[in-house]
Amino acid sequence: MPLAKGVSLDDAAQSMKLRANALNMKLVAELPLSKQVEAITGKPEPRATIYQFCDALTASRMLHYNLDFAAYLPCRIALVEDAKGQGWLVMMDLNLLINVANLQPELKARAIEIRNNLENIMQAGANGDL
């Protein structure tokens, strides 16, 4: 998802954090990948930051259902800058996981709600909504 014209990378990050908080999705990690690469190489790097969001109760339910879900937790949204300076928000297509996981109806509904919340977070970031 591209950032809208006039939305800076910092605006997008702030908007995502605010929207996540409003949706009761906790920001549990922020991984400044590009800064880490710059520290190693000493050369400027296009921005790449991974934000990890979590709904702990749903995560726990998913793990109790199947430990393999640990590989997908917490949910990640990447804020990246392409070679032309355009900002993008990138997330795994959770529909693939939801549709093949054979989840119980209640757990599937919760997974869909989490997917919707993450898409909402991305939309807020892309548009710079506060």
Notable traits:
5 helices, about 130 residues, TATA-Binding Protein, about 50% helix, alpha+beta, four-stranded antiparallel β-sheet
What does this entry look like structurally?
- With 130 residues, the protein is α+β, with helices and mostly antiparallel strands.
- The protein has one domain: TT1751-like domain (TATA-Binding Protein), CATH 3.30.310.
- The protein contains five helices and four strands.
- Strands 1-2-3-4 form a four-stranded antiparallel beta sheet.
- Strand 3 and strand 4 form a beta hairpin.
- The longest helix has 23 residues.
- It is globular and about 45 Å long.
- The model has no long low-confidence stretch (mean pLDDT 95).
Topology:
Layout: H1 9-22, E1 26-31, H2 33-41, E2 48-54, H3 56-65, E3 75-81, E4 87-90, H4 94-100, H5 105-127
Antiparallel strand pairs: 1-2, 2-3, 3-4
Helix pairs in contact: 1-5
Query: Measured on Cα atoms, how large is the radius of gyration?
Result: 16 Å
Summarize the amount of helix as a percent range. 40-55%
Structure summary, number of beta strands: 4
CATH topology: TATA-Binding Protein
Shape: globular
Give the low-confidence spans. none
How far apart are the first and last residues' alpha carbons, in Å?
Answer: 18 Å
Task: Count helical runs.
Answer: 5
Q: Quote the average pLDDT.
A: 95
Number of domains: 1
Largest beta sheet: strand ordering: 1-2-3-4
Largest sheet: 4 strands, antiparallel
The CATH architecture is: 2-Layer Sandwich
Proportion of residues in β-strands = 15-25%
Succession of helices and strands: HEHEHEEHH
CATH superfamily: TT1751-like domain
